[in-house]
Amino acid sequence: MSIPVVRVGEQAMHCSTAANILISSSCELCGQEENCDRIIFHCQFALHVWNSLGFQTGNATVKALWTVARPTTVPARHYSGFLLLVCWLLWKQRNDLVFQHVQPSHPRFWAQCRDEARLWSLRLKQEEQYVADAWCSLFISM
């Protein structure tokens, strides 16, 4: 078995699992082939997240993220931001599993969503704060 080499600038780094660089492309949670669509929409953890929020993501892909229908529980204003927030935190849950060996947790996920929504709300105009408040309320109710 050869050890993959990654070039960083002029230096070569030998990849190994000890350095937390993955050689396998299998999902650490379910063992299936890992790709962006699976991580964001189709793994068991992500499916539970989207279903809990009222989304129908059966054939959803990351490439067509903006075509995912908005449930009535999510405000229309800044809907794309909401999608990005959920995707970002699903990705972070995956990275916590792969690199920190922290098992995914829905209660921790919802708390992180709420905390991140509060941070993201700082970029909103004062009169749009109701959007982040609605996001936080939705995450708290999970």
Automatic annotation (TrEMBL):
This is Reverse transcriptase zinc-binding domain-containing protein. It comes from the Eukaryota. PROSITE patterns: PROKAR_LIPOPROTEIN.
